[in-house]
């Protein structure tokens, strides 16, 4: 998850404690604007990094030798 989540923008990276997990869940429940923003940004990040198009574009660059 650390490579796919940007803390506070596309989700939250919580320590493995029930208290911290609950804190972030309550934050999302109470803040609709933040919840909608994280939803939108998270969806965009998944599409940009993990969609078939993103994968095929990266593979094409590797094959062509332009893996920047």
TrEMBL record:
Record GO terms (molecular function) = GDP-Man:Man(1)GlcNAc(2)-PP-Dol alpha-1,3-mannosyltransferase activity
Q: Which InterPro entries match?
A: ALG2 (IPR027054)
GO cellular component labels: endomembrane system
Record keywords: Transferase
* PANTHER family registered for this protein in UniProt: ALPHA-1,3/1,6-MANNOSYLTRANSFERASE ALG2, ALPHA-1,3_1,6-MANNOSYLTRANSFERASE ALG2
Q: What is this protein called?
A: Glycosyl transferase family 1 domain-containing protein
Organism (species): Dictyocaulus viviparus
């Amino acid at each position: 998850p650390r490579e796919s989540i940007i803390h506070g923008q596309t989700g939250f990276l919580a320590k493995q404690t029930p208290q911290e997990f609950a804190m972030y869940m309550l934050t999302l429940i109470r803040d609709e604007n933040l919840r909608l923003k994280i939803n939108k940004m998270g969806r965009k990040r998944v599409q940009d990094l993990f969609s078939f198009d993103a994968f095929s574009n990266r593979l094409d660059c590797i094959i062509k030798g332009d893996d920047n």
